[in-house]
C-alpha cells in the first residue's frame, strides 16, 4: 500500500506499507470463543453477555467429570422420579379394577332386588364375558407382585385367580348350573372381595390409612371366603351327582 505525506518543507514524501499477515488477527477467526468474546465484549448488549456466560458455564459443567456424590444424587433423583411414576400407574390400575368390579357387583345386586328370582335365568348369559375379563385382569396384579412392584405372595394369588377362572369356565360349559341361585351368590362373593381389596391397595399405595377400609380388608374375608369355598364345593358335588346319574342312566338304558 502506497501513502503520500506532505513534509514541513513542502516536499511530498511517498511511503510504502506492507501488511504482516503473520501478526494479523481477525476477530472472526479467533482460535477460541473466549478470545472472540474478549474482543467483542464492548460491542455486545448485557443480554448477549449473560447468554454467553451461561453457555460457557454449561460447557464447563459438561466437560467437568461428576463426583461420586453428584452421581449418587442423580441416581436418587432418577429413582424418585420412577417411584412417582410407579405410584401413579399402580393407583390408576387399582382404581380402574375397582370401578370394573364395583360396576359388576352393582349390576348383580340391583337386578336381583328389582327383578327377583327371574334374574337367575339371564344374569349369566348377559354378564359372562365381562366376568371373564374382570377376573383375567386380576392376573396383572399377580404380575405386579412377581416383578416386585407390590408386596404380597404371588403364588397364593395365582392359585386363587386361576381357581376362580377355572370355575367360571366350568360354569360357562354347564348350562344346567348357570341359572342356579348359588351361581349368582358365588359371583357376588368373588366380586365383593375385590371391591374391598382394590380401594385398600389404592390407599396403601398413596400411604393413606382409612380405618374402615383396613378393618374390612382384614375381616370381610372371614365371611366371604368360606361362602365362596362352600359354594364351590356345592357346585363340584352337584356336578359329580349329575355325571354319576348320567352314567347310571346310560347303563340301564333299553335303547
Automatic annotation (TrEMBL):
Pathway: Lipid metabolism; fatty acid biosynthesis. The chain crosses the membrane at residues 86-110, 130-147, 183-203, 215-237. Pfam families: PTPLA. Coiled coil: none annotated. It comes from Onchocerca flexuosa. InterPro entries: Tyr_Pase-like_PTPLA (IPR007482). It is a multi-pass membrane protein. This is Very-long-chain (3R)-3-hydroxyacyl-CoA dehydratase. It comes from the Eukaryota. Keywords: Endoplasmic reticulum, Fatty acid biosynthesis, Fatty acid metabolism, Lipid biosynthesis, Lipid metabolism, Lyase, Membrane, Transmembrane, Transmembrane helix. Belongs to the very long-chain fatty acids dehydratase HACD family. One of its GO terms (molecular function) is very-long-chain (3R)-3-hydroxyacyl-CoA dehydratase activity. Catalyzes the third of the four reactions of the long-chain fatty acids elongation cycle. This endoplasmic reticulum-bound enzymatic process, allows the addition of two carbons to the chain of long- and very long-chain fatty acids/VLCFAs per cycle. This enzyme catalyzes the dehydration of the 3-hydroxyacyl-CoA intermediate into trans-2,3-enoyl-CoA, within each cycle of fatty acid elongation. Thereby, it participates to the production of VLCFAs of different chain lengths that are involved in multiple biological processes as precursors of membrane lipids and lipid mediators. It catalyses: a very-long-chain (3R)-3-hydroxyacyl-CoA = a very-long-chain (2E)-enoyl-CoA + H2O. It is found in: Endoplasmic reticulum membrane; Membrane. GO terms for biological process: fatty acid elongation; sphingolipid biosynthetic process; very long-chain fatty acid biosynthetic process.
Amino acid at each position: 500500500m502506497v501513502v503520500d505525506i506532505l513534509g514541513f518543507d513542502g516536499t511530498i514524501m511517498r511511503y510504502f506499507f506492507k501488511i504482516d499477515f503473520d501478526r494479523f488477527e481477525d476477530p472472526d477467526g479467533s482460535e477460541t470463543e473466549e478470545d472472540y468474546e474478549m474482543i467483542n465484549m464492548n460491542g455486545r448488549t448485557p443480554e448477549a453477555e449473560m447468554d454467553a456466560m451461561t453457555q460457557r458455564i454449561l460447557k464447563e459443567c459438561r466437560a467437568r467429570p461428576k463426583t461420586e456424590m453428584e452421581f449418587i444424587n442423580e441416581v436418587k433423583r432418577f429413582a424418585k422420579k420412577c417411584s412417582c411414576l410407579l405410584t401413579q400407574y399402580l393407583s390408576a390400575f387399582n382404581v380402574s379394577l375397582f370401578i370394573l368390579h364395583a360396576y359388576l357387583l352393582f349390576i348383580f345386586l340391583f337386578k336381583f332386588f328389582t327383578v327377583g328370582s327371574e334374574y337367575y335365568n339371564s344374569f349369566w348369559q348377559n354378564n359372562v364375558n365381562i366376568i371373564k375379563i374382570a377376573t383375567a385382569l386380576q392376573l396383572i396384579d399377580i404380575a405386579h407382585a412377581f416383578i416386585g412392584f407390590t408386596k404380597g405372595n404371588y403364588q397364593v394369588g395365582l392359585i386363587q385367580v386361576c381357581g376362580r377362572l377355572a370355575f367360571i369356565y366350568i360354569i360357562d360349559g354347564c348350562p344346567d348350573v348357570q341359572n342356579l341361585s348359588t351361581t349368582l351368590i358365588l359371583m357376588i362373593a368373588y366380586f365383593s372381595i375385590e371391591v374391598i381389596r382394590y380401594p385398600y391397595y389404592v390407599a396403601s399405595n398413596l400411604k393413606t390409612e382409612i380405618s374402615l377400609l383396613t378393618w374390612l380388608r382384614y375381616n370381610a374375608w372371614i365371611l366371604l371366603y368360606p361362602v365362596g369355598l362352600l359354594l364351590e364345593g356345592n357346585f363340584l358335588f352337584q356336578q359329580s351327582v349329575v355325571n354319576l346319574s348320567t352314567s347310571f342312566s346310560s347303563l340301564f338304558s333299553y335303547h
